[in-house]
């Protein structure tokens, strides 16, 4: 079915819904690489005007990838909440934007199961940055394991103590450094340099030891492949959260060596461990615009819509945490700071609108046309938008993955500027051991002493 929109003497024709959505997308290098981006600003605006008139019911009825060809499409349609959709089914994309701008948090929570990724992506394409921030701020998604993530007025931090050789002392030093800055309430999560079960066993033991010795109300995760984590659970190793990178098409997930059946098996295995005293959100997913295109699994669909489809995969497994590693894949997909900033706001908006506890790794690679000032801007905008969590990396420079992210200091900055709190259980722990006052402000001096007094063996 073709779509048309007239601008002056010219009629713009878009062959199908996938083409229309791609042409309506703010320009980014990945869509240009795929040959699906708008060829001019006029064509982009014509596509947005046209998209605004498309009914939400039509988007649901016309899947971008056929039902019979893709298990993610089947998942989206088979889990679509028809009762919740009845509230918004009569709206066009343009109407839906107006609805979202005035809707309450309660209304947004009620309709979240009705929002397919294609609906979320479509409406984001006709929204300004301020629209994305305003609506996302009203979407609250609360999850629990050993603490409570996503409460209004909070921003959690993943403490990311990566080491290029998985050296335990180096990782421990980074963990203590991050804790001394009040980071780690989202998760203490390590990207291992090796994917071997021996390394995984060592790192899981290290993280569990630190959390137990210090009695930290947080969770751990080693970000290895889901099948390796399944092996670890079968061996009785201390697994809190199951991690996996996911994408928005069956073929792209296959390139990661993962299927929906494997994710279901891992989810059920982690639930059976019952390690979360406060809740049973046991999954941690990461995503990123461009992953499907890099696997030649994009089906001619724009990368932002495919990113939103990954959130539909995540949503089914009720994760504790999901994050878009927004600038990590590289400038082939998000060329510069402006593209990264827009993508980060889109991803956060789409995830939250769909009821996913979305955080953002505010990051870039060293060959992108971006710098830390761009990351400061995105971090600030995401803080205003109610982002669930961000990364805390020593010095903002990940020495194992070789990319630039946000530091422990950056977390202090955004908390102070916007008055954002930590997860309440984690904040109470910081106060109890003498690292922070009752309001969450770090106390001057003595941070390392407080941690090592609580667990002196960690200094060995």
UniProtKB/TrEMBL annotation:
Keywords: Bacterial microcompartment, Cobalamin, Cobalt, Lyase. InterPro entries: Aldolase_TIM (IPR013785), EutB (IPR010628), EutB_dom_2_sf (IPR044939), EutB_N_sf (IPR044941). Gene3D superfamilies: Aldolase class I (3.20.20.70), ethanolamine ammonia-lyase heavy chain domain like (2.30.170.30), lyase (1.10.220.70). Its main location: other. It comes from the Bacteria. It is an enzyme of class 4 (lyase). GO terms for cellular component: cytosol; ethanolamine ammonia-lyase complex; ethanolamine degradation polyhedral organelle. Coiled coil: none annotated. GO terms for molecular function: cobalamin binding; ethanolamine ammonia-lyase activity. GO terms for biological process: amino acid metabolic process; ethanolamine catabolic process. Binds between the large and small subunits. It catalyses: ethanolamine = acetaldehyde + NH4(+). Pathway: Amine and polyamine degradation; ethanolamine degradation. This is Ethanolamine ammonia-lyase large subunit. The lineage of its organism: Bacteria, Pseudomonadati, Pseudomonadota, Alphaproteobacteria, Hyphomicrobiales.
């Amino acid at each position: 079915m073709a779509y048309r929109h007239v601008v002056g003497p010219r009629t713009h024709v878009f062959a199908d819904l996938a083409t229309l959505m791609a042409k309506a997308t703010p320009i980014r290098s990945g869509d240009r690489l795929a040959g699906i981006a708008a060829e001019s600003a006029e064509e982009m605006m014509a596509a947005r005007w046209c998209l605004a008139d498309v009914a939400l019911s039509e988007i649901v009825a016309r899947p971008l990838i056929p039902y019979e060809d893709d298990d993610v499409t089947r998942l989206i349609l088979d889990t679509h909440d028809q009762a919740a959709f009845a509230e918004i089914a009569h709206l066009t994309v343009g109407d839906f934007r107006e609805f979202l701008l005035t809707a309450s948090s309660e209304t947004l929570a009620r309709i979240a199961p009705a929002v397919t990724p294609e609906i979320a992506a479509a409406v984001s394409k006709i929204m300004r940055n301020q629209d994305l921030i305003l609506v996302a701020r009203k979407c609250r998604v609360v999850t629990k394991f050993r603490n409570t993530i996503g409460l209004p007025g909070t921003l959690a931090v993943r403490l990311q103590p990566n080491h290029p050789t998985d050296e335990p002392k180096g990782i421990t030093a980074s963990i203590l450094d991050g804790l001394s800055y009040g980071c780690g309430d989202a998760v203490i999560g390590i990207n291992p340099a090796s994917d071997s079960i021996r390394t995984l066993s060592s790192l899981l033991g290290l993280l569990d030891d630190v959390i137990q010795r210090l009695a930290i109300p947080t969770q751990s995760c080693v970000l290895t492949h889901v099948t390796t984590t399944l092996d670890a659970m079968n061996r009785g190793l201390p697994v809190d959260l199951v991690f996996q990178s996911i994408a928005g098409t069956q073929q792209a997930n296959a390139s990661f060596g993962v299927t929906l059946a494997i994710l279901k098996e891992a989810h059920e295995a982690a639930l059976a461990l019952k390690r979360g005293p406060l809740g049973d959100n046991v999954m941690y997913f990461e995503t990123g615009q461009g992953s499907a295109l890099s696997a030649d699994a994009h089906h001619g669909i724009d990368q932002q819509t495919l990113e939103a489809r990954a959130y539909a995969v995540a949503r089914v497994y009720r994760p504790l945490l999901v994050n878009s590693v927004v600038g990590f894949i590289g400038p082939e997909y998000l060329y510069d700071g402006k593209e990264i900033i827009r993508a980060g706001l889109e991803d956060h908006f789409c995830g939250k609108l769909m009821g996913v506890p979305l955080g953002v790794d505010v990051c870039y690679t060293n060959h992108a046309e971006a710098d830390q000032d761009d990351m400061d801007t995105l971090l600030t905008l995401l803080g205003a938008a109610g982002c669930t969590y961000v990364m805390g990396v020593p010095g903002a420079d990940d020495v194992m993955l070789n990319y630039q992210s946000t530091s422990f200091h950056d977390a202090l900055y955004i908390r102070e500027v916007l008055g954002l709190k930590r997860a309440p259980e984690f904040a109470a722990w910081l106060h109890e051991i003498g690292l922070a006052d009752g309001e969450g402000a770090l106390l001057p001096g003595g941070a390392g002493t407080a941690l090592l007094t609580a667990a002196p063996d960690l200094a060995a």
